[in-house]
Amino acid sequence: MKKILQLLVLLSSHFMFSQYEIIDQKTDEIPKQYQNSIPAIANYINQNFTSEEDKVRAAFYWTANNISYDVPAMYKPKIQTVKEKIDATLKTRKGVCMHYAEVFNAIVNQLGVKSYVVDGYTKQFGKIANLSHSWNACKINGKWYLFDPTWGAGYVKDEVFYKKLNNAYYKTDAADFLKTHMPFDYIWQLNEKPITNDDFYQDVTESDLIANPFDFNRAIAEFEGLSEPDRMAKQIERLEKTGLKNDFIKEKYNALKMNLEGYKNNQSIPKLELIVSEFNLANKLLNDFIAYRNKRFMPLVSDEKIREKVQVPYNKWLFCQQELDKIVDVSKENLYNFNSLKKTVASAQKRFEEQLNFVNNYLSKSTSERAAFFTARRK
To answer: Could you give the number of structural domains in the chain?
Structure first.
Protein backbone atom coordinates (compact mmCIF):
# COMPACT_ATOMS: atom_id res chain seq x y z
CA MET A 1 0.00 0.00 0.00
CA LYS A 2 2.84 2.36 0.87
CA LYS A 3 4.49 1.73 -2.51
CA ILE A 4 1.23 2.49 -4.30
CA LEU A 5 0.89 5.79 -2.45
CA GLN A 6 4.48 6.74 -3.26
CA LEU A 7 3.84 5.91 -6.91
CA LEU A 8 0.72 8.10 -6.94
CA VAL A 9 2.68 11.00 -5.43
CA LEU A 10 5.40 10.59 -8.04
CA LEU A 11 2.86 10.41 -10.85
CA SER A 12 1.09 13.52 -9.51
CA SER A 13 4.35 15.47 -9.29
CA HIS A 14 5.36 14.35 -12.79
CA PHE A 15 1.96 15.39 -14.18
CA MET A 16 2.25 18.83 -12.59
CA PHE A 17 5.76 19.26 -13.98
CA SER A 18 4.64 18.12 -17.42
CA GLN A 19 1.65 20.44 -17.34
CA TYR A 20 3.83 23.45 -16.51
CA GLU A 21 6.46 22.32 -19.02
CA ILE A 22 3.95 22.42 -21.90
CA ILE A 23 2.79 25.93 -20.91
CA ASP A 24 6.35 27.13 -20.40
CA GLN A 25 7.50 25.80 -23.77
CA LYS A 26 4.59 27.50 -25.52
CA THR A 27 5.37 30.75 -23.68
CA ASP A 28 8.97 30.54 -24.89
CA GLU A 29 7.62 30.78 -28.42
CA ILE A 30 6.38 34.37 -28.02
CA PRO A 31 7.92 36.27 -30.98
CA LYS A 32 10.50 38.85 -29.94
CA GLN A 33 8.51 41.71 -31.43
CA TYR A 34 5.64 40.88 -29.08
CA GLN A 35 7.76 41.01 -25.94
CA ASN A 36 8.19 44.76 -25.73
CA SER A 37 4.74 45.64 -24.42
CA ILE A 38 2.35 44.27 -21.83
CA PRO A 39 -0.67 44.23 -24.19
CA ALA A 40 1.30 42.26 -26.82
CA ILE A 41 2.49 39.67 -24.29
CA ALA A 42 -1.01 39.33 -22.85
CA ASN A 43 -2.53 39.07 -26.32
CA TYR A 44 -0.22 36.17 -27.19
CA ILE A 45 -1.09 34.41 -23.93
CA ASN A 46 -4.81 34.93 -24.52
CA GLN A 47 -4.53 33.47 -28.01
CA ASN A 48 -2.67 30.37 -26.86
CA PHE A 49 -4.24 29.53 -23.52
CA THR A 50 -7.85 29.33 -22.39
CA SER A 51 -8.00 28.75 -18.62
CA GLU A 52 -7.14 31.37 -15.99
CA GLU A 53 -4.74 28.88 -14.43
CA ASP A 54 -2.76 28.42 -17.65
CA LYS A 55 -2.75 32.14 -18.44
CA VAL A 56 -1.41 33.09 -15.02
CA ARG A 57 1.21 30.34 -15.27
CA ALA A 58 2.33 31.73 -18.63
CA ALA A 59 2.55 35.25 -17.16
CA PHE A 60 4.56 34.00 -14.18
CA TYR A 61 6.90 31.97 -16.35
CA TRP A 62 7.48 34.79 -18.83
CA THR A 63 8.25 37.27 -16.03
CA ALA A 64 10.54 34.94 -14.08
CA ASN A 65 12.31 33.59 -17.16
CA ASN A 66 12.82 36.84 -19.06
CA ILE A 67 13.88 39.29 -16.35
CA SER A 68 17.25 39.16 -14.62
CA TYR A 69 17.76 40.49 -11.14
CA ASP A 70 19.60 43.83 -11.24
CA VAL A 71 22.07 43.34 -8.39
CA PRO A 72 23.74 46.80 -8.66
CA ALA A 73 20.30 48.45 -8.38
CA MET A 74 19.43 46.42 -5.29
CA TYR A 75 20.64 49.08 -2.87
CA LYS A 76 19.95 52.07 -5.16
CA PRO A 77 16.19 52.09 -5.75
CA LYS A 78 14.87 54.69 -8.17
CA ILE A 79 11.69 56.64 -7.62
CA GLN A 80 9.56 55.64 -10.62
CA THR A 81 5.93 55.53 -11.56
CA VAL A 82 4.42 52.10 -12.25
CA LYS A 83 4.58 52.80 -15.98
CA GLU A 84 8.23 53.82 -15.76
CA LYS A 85 9.07 50.64 -13.85
CA ILE A 86 7.36 48.45 -16.44
CA ASP A 87 8.76 50.28 -19.47
CA ALA A 88 12.32 50.19 -18.11
CA THR A 89 12.06 46.51 -17.24
CA LEU A 90 10.73 45.48 -20.65
CA LYS A 91 13.49 47.48 -22.32
CA THR A 92 16.46 46.30 -20.24
CA ARG A 93 15.06 42.94 -19.07
CA LYS A 94 16.49 43.80 -15.67
CA GLY A 95 14.94 44.84 -12.39
CA VAL A 96 14.54 44.29 -8.68
CA CYS A 97 11.54 42.85 -6.87
CA MET A 98 9.24 45.79 -7.50
CA HIS A 99 9.87 45.47 -11.26
CA TYR A 100 9.17 41.74 -11.34
CA ALA A 101 5.98 42.28 -9.32
CA GLU A 102 4.72 45.18 -11.44
CA VAL A 103 5.37 43.40 -14.75
CA PHE A 104 3.68 40.20 -13.61
CA ASN A 105 0.80 42.21 -12.14
CA ALA A 106 0.33 44.20 -15.36
CA ILE A 107 0.30 41.09 -17.58
CA VAL A 108 -2.18 39.28 -15.32
CA ASN A 109 -4.50 42.28 -15.11
CA GLN A 110 -4.30 42.67 -18.89
CA LEU A 111 -5.42 39.04 -19.11
CA GLY A 112 -8.54 39.94 -17.14
CA VAL A 113 -7.40 38.20 -13.96
CA LYS A 114 -7.47 40.13 -10.70
CA SER A 115 -4.00 40.74 -9.27
CA TYR A 116 -2.30 43.06 -6.78
CA VAL A 117 1.27 43.95 -5.88
CA VAL A 118 1.91 43.15 -2.22
CA ASP A 119 4.62 44.97 -0.26
CA GLY A 120 6.33 43.55 2.79
CA TYR A 121 9.60 42.03 3.97
CA THR A 122 11.13 38.58 4.08
CA LYS A 123 13.05 36.11 6.19
CA GLN A 124 15.41 33.31 5.19
CA PHE A 125 17.18 30.84 7.44
CA GLY A 126 15.74 32.64 10.45
CA LYS A 127 17.24 35.99 9.43
CA ILE A 128 15.22 39.07 8.48
CA ALA A 129 16.34 40.49 5.12
CA ASN A 130 17.90 43.94 5.06
CA LEU A 131 15.65 45.08 2.19
CA SER A 132 11.89 45.27 1.84
CA HIS A 133 10.25 43.11 -0.82
CA SER A 134 7.34 42.98 -3.27
CA TRP A 135 5.35 40.03 -4.58
CA ASN A 136 1.83 39.32 -5.86
CA ALA A 137 -1.60 38.01 -4.93
CA CYS A 138 -3.87 36.79 -7.74
CA LYS A 139 -7.44 35.55 -7.73
CA ILE A 140 -7.80 32.49 -9.97
CA ASN A 141 -11.21 30.90 -10.41
CA GLY A 142 -12.50 32.71 -7.35
CA LYS A 143 -9.61 31.82 -5.03
CA TRP A 144 -6.64 33.92 -3.92
CA TYR A 145 -3.08 32.62 -4.42
CA LEU A 146 0.39 34.02 -3.69
CA PHE A 147 3.26 34.40 -6.16
CA ASP A 148 6.81 35.69 -5.99
CA PRO A 149 8.20 36.04 -9.52
CA THR A 150 11.45 37.48 -8.14
CA TRP A 151 12.32 34.48 -6.01
CA GLY A 152 10.89 32.29 -8.73
CA ALA A 153 13.43 33.68 -11.22
CA GLY A 154 16.57 32.56 -9.40
CA TYR A 155 18.76 33.67 -6.53
CA VAL A 156 21.59 36.04 -5.62
CA LYS A 157 24.80 34.70 -4.14
CA ASP A 158 27.91 36.78 -3.46
CA GLU A 159 26.37 39.72 -5.34
CA VAL A 160 25.81 37.60 -8.46
CA PHE A 161 22.38 36.65 -9.83
CA TYR A 162 21.91 33.03 -10.88
CA LYS A 163 18.90 32.41 -13.07
CA LYS A 164 17.04 29.27 -12.03
CA LEU A 165 13.29 28.88 -12.29
CA ASN A 166 11.81 28.01 -8.88
CA ASN A 167 8.20 26.83 -8.94
CA ALA A 168 8.05 26.85 -5.14
CA TYR A 169 6.98 30.49 -5.43
CA TYR A 170 4.21 29.85 -7.93
CA LYS A 171 0.78 29.52 -6.27
CA THR A 172 2.50 28.98 -2.95
CA ASP A 173 0.39 27.75 -0.05
CA ALA A 174 -0.41 30.73 2.19
CA ALA A 175 0.92 29.01 5.34
CA ASP A 176 4.19 28.12 3.64
CA PHE A 177 4.50 31.59 2.14
CA LEU A 178 4.12 33.16 5.58
CA LYS A 179 7.22 31.31 6.75
CA THR A 180 9.34 33.60 4.58
CA HIS A 181 7.13 36.51 3.45
CA MET A 182 5.43 38.99 5.76
CA PRO A 183 3.13 41.55 4.08
CA PHE A 184 2.83 45.00 5.63
CA ASP A 185 -0.97 44.75 5.37
CA TYR A 186 -2.17 41.60 7.11
CA ILE A 187 -5.12 40.99 4.76
CA TRP A 188 -2.56 39.71 2.23
CA GLN A 189 -1.42 36.96 4.57
CA LEU A 190 -4.53 35.11 3.31
CA ASN A 191 -4.58 33.76 6.82
CA GLU A 192 -7.65 33.01 8.95
CA LYS A 193 -5.56 33.78 12.03
CA PRO A 194 -3.33 36.71 11.00
CA ILE A 195 -0.05 37.07 12.83
CA THR A 196 1.76 40.16 14.09
CA ASN A 197 5.24 41.23 13.11
CA ASP A 198 6.49 39.93 16.45
CA ASP A 199 4.99 36.54 15.55
CA PHE A 200 6.79 36.54 12.21
CA TYR A 201 10.12 37.19 13.94
CA GLN A 202 9.42 34.22 16.20
CA ASP A 203 8.44 31.86 13.34
CA VAL A 204 4.77 31.78 14.34
CA THR A 205 2.43 31.29 11.36
CA GLU A 206 -0.97 31.39 13.12
CA SER A 207 -2.06 33.66 15.94
CA ASP A 208 -3.32 32.03 19.15
CA LEU A 209 -5.05 35.26 20.13
CA ILE A 210 -7.71 35.17 17.40
CA ALA A 211 -10.73 33.13 18.46
CA ASN A 212 -12.87 33.47 15.34
CA PRO A 213 -11.49 32.93 11.82
CA PHE A 214 -10.60 36.14 10.00
CA ASP A 215 -12.48 36.39 6.70
CA PHE A 216 -9.68 37.70 4.48
CA ASN A 217 -11.83 37.23 1.35
CA ARG A 218 -14.38 39.64 2.73
CA ALA A 219 -11.65 42.03 3.91
CA ILE A 220 -10.10 42.11 0.43
CA ALA A 221 -13.52 42.66 -1.17
CA GLU A 222 -14.14 45.59 1.20
CA PHE A 223 -10.66 46.94 0.41
CA GLU A 224 -11.44 46.84 -3.31
CA GLY A 225 -14.62 48.84 -2.79
CA LEU A 226 -12.89 51.72 -1.00
CA SER A 227 -11.64 54.95 -2.52
CA GLU A 228 -7.88 55.40 -2.66
CA PRO A 229 -7.67 57.65 0.45
CA ASP A 230 -9.90 55.27 2.40
CA ARG A 231 -7.69 52.34 1.36
CA MET A 232 -4.66 54.18 2.70
CA ALA A 233 -6.43 55.03 5.94
CA LYS A 234 -7.42 51.39 6.49
CA GLN A 235 -3.90 50.20 5.69
CA ILE A 236 -2.50 52.63 8.25
CA GLU A 237 -4.88 51.19 10.87
CA ARG A 238 -3.87 47.62 10.05
CA LEU A 239 -0.16 48.44 10.16
CA GLU A 240 -0.66 49.87 13.64
CA LYS A 241 -2.44 46.68 14.72
CA THR A 242 0.37 44.37 13.63
CA GLY A 243 3.05 46.63 15.14
CA LEU A 244 5.73 48.93 13.73
CA LYS A 245 8.40 46.35 14.41
CA ASN A 246 11.17 47.44 12.03
CA ASP A 247 12.33 50.24 9.78
CA PHE A 248 10.66 48.68 6.70
CA ILE A 249 7.26 48.84 8.34
CA LYS A 250 7.86 52.34 9.72
CA GLU A 251 8.93 53.53 6.27
CA LYS A 252 5.77 52.08 4.70
CA TYR A 253 3.64 53.50 7.52
CA ASN A 254 5.11 57.00 7.16
CA ALA A 255 4.83 56.86 3.37
CA LEU A 256 1.13 55.97 3.62
CA LYS A 257 0.49 58.81 6.06
CA MET A 258 2.38 61.26 3.86
CA ASN A 259 0.55 60.08 0.74
CA LEU A 260 -2.79 60.36 2.51
CA GLU A 261 -2.00 63.91 3.59
CA GLY A 262 -0.86 64.69 0.05
CA TYR A 263 -4.05 63.26 -1.37
CA LYS A 264 -6.16 65.32 1.00
CA ASN A 265 -4.13 68.38 0.09
CA ASN A 266 -4.47 67.78 -3.64
CA GLN A 267 -8.19 67.15 -3.32
CA SER A 268 -8.99 70.01 -0.96
CA ILE A 269 -7.01 72.83 -2.59
CA PRO A 270 -8.98 72.96 -5.88
CA LYS A 271 -12.27 72.68 -3.97
CA LEU A 272 -11.30 75.43 -1.55
CA GLU A 273 -10.12 77.63 -4.40
CA LEU A 274 -13.46 77.14 -6.17
CA ILE A 275 -15.40 77.93 -3.00
CA VAL A 276 -13.38 81.10 -2.39
CA SER A 277 -13.97 82.19 -5.99
CA GLU A 278 -17.72 81.53 -5.80
CA PHE A 279 -18.01 83.22 -2.41
CA ASN A 280 -16.21 86.33 -3.65
CA LEU A 281 -18.50 86.43 -6.68
CA ALA A 282 -21.56 85.93 -4.47
CA ASN A 283 -20.52 88.92 -2.35
CA LYS A 284 -19.93 91.09 -5.41
CA LEU A 285 -23.33 90.22 -6.88
CA LEU A 286 -25.03 90.83 -3.53
CA ASN A 287 -23.34 94.24 -3.23
CA ASP A 288 -24.55 95.03 -6.77
CA PHE A 289 -28.06 94.10 -5.71
CA ILE A 290 -27.88 96.25 -2.56
CA ALA A 291 -26.73 99.20 -4.69
CA TYR A 292 -29.69 98.61 -7.02
CA ARG A 293 -32.02 98.35 -4.03
CA ASN A 294 -30.69 101.64 -2.66
CA LYS A 295 -31.76 103.22 -5.98
CA ARG A 296 -35.28 101.96 -5.28
CA PHE A 297 -35.01 99.35 -8.03
CA MET A 298 -34.40 101.98 -10.67
CA PRO A 299 -34.17 101.68 -13.60
CA LEU A 300 -37.25 99.50 -13.38
CA VAL A 301 -37.02 95.91 -14.58
CA SER A 302 -39.37 92.93 -14.45
CA ASP A 303 -40.14 91.13 -11.18
CA GLU A 304 -38.29 88.11 -12.54
CA LYS A 305 -35.15 90.18 -13.10
CA ILE A 306 -35.35 91.67 -9.61
CA ARG A 307 -35.63 88.22 -8.07
CA GLU A 308 -32.72 86.97 -10.18
CA LYS A 309 -30.47 89.79 -8.95
CA VAL A 310 -30.69 88.45 -5.39
CA GLN A 311 -31.36 84.77 -6.04
CA VAL A 312 -28.14 84.23 -8.03
CA PRO A 313 -25.79 85.48 -5.27
CA TYR A 314 -27.83 83.63 -2.65
CA ASN A 315 -27.53 80.37 -4.61
CA LYS A 316 -23.78 80.86 -4.90
CA TRP A 317 -23.53 81.43 -1.15
CA LEU A 318 -25.62 78.29 -0.56
CA PHE A 319 -23.35 76.32 -2.91
CA CYS A 320 -20.31 77.40 -0.89
CA GLN A 321 -21.98 76.37 2.37
CA GLN A 322 -22.95 72.95 1.02
CA GLU A 323 -19.55 72.23 -0.54
CA LEU A 324 -17.75 73.13 2.68
CA ASP A 325 -20.00 70.72 4.57
CA LYS A 326 -19.04 67.93 2.14
CA ILE A 327 -15.33 68.30 2.89
CA VAL A 328 -14.42 65.89 5.68
CA ASP A 329 -10.68 65.43 5.12
CA VAL A 330 -8.38 68.43 5.06
CA SER A 331 -4.61 68.31 5.25
CA LYS A 332 -2.94 69.87 8.27
CA GLU A 333 -1.45 72.56 6.02
CA ASN A 334 -4.91 73.70 4.93
CA LEU A 335 -6.85 73.14 8.14
CA TYR A 336 -6.54 76.74 9.41
CA ASN A 337 -7.60 78.23 6.06
CA PHE A 338 -10.46 75.76 5.80
CA ASN A 339 -11.81 76.60 9.25
CA SER A 340 -11.47 80.33 8.60
CA LEU A 341 -13.31 80.06 5.29
CA LYS A 342 -16.05 77.94 6.82
CA LYS A 343 -16.56 80.50 9.59
CA THR A 344 -16.64 83.40 7.12
CA VAL A 345 -19.18 81.72 4.84
CA ALA A 346 -21.40 80.75 7.77
CA SER A 347 -21.34 84.29 9.19
CA ALA A 348 -22.54 85.67 5.84
CA GLN A 349 -25.77 83.65 5.97
CA LYS A 350 -27.78 86.36 7.71
CA ARG A 351 -26.76 89.00 5.16
CA PHE A 352 -27.75 86.91 2.14
CA GLU A 353 -31.01 85.70 3.67
CA GLU A 354 -31.97 89.22 4.71
CA GLN A 355 -31.78 90.47 1.13
CA LEU A 356 -33.57 87.43 -0.27
CA ASN A 357 -36.39 87.78 2.28
CA PHE A 358 -36.72 91.46 1.43
CA VAL A 359 -37.21 90.71 -2.26
CA ASN A 360 -39.62 87.86 -1.62
CA ASN A 361 -41.68 90.11 0.63
CA TYR A 362 -41.47 93.02 -1.82
CA LEU A 363 -42.62 90.97 -4.80
CA SER A 364 -45.52 89.51 -2.83
CA LYS A 365 -47.08 92.99 -2.53
CA SER A 366 -49.14 94.93 -5.00
CA THR A 367 -47.59 97.74 -7.03
CA SER A 368 -49.16 100.41 -4.82
CA GLU A 369 -47.83 98.76 -1.66
CA ARG A 370 -44.25 98.44 -2.85
CA ALA A 371 -43.40 102.14 -2.55
CA ALA A 372 -43.66 101.85 1.24
CA PHE A 373 -40.64 99.50 1.26
CA PHE A 374 -38.34 102.41 0.50
CA THR A 375 -39.61 104.90 3.11
CA ALA A 376 -36.75 103.87 5.37
CA ARG A 377 -33.19 103.06 4.41
CA ARG A 378 -32.64 99.30 4.30
CA LYS A 379 -29.31 97.59 4.35
So the answer is: 2
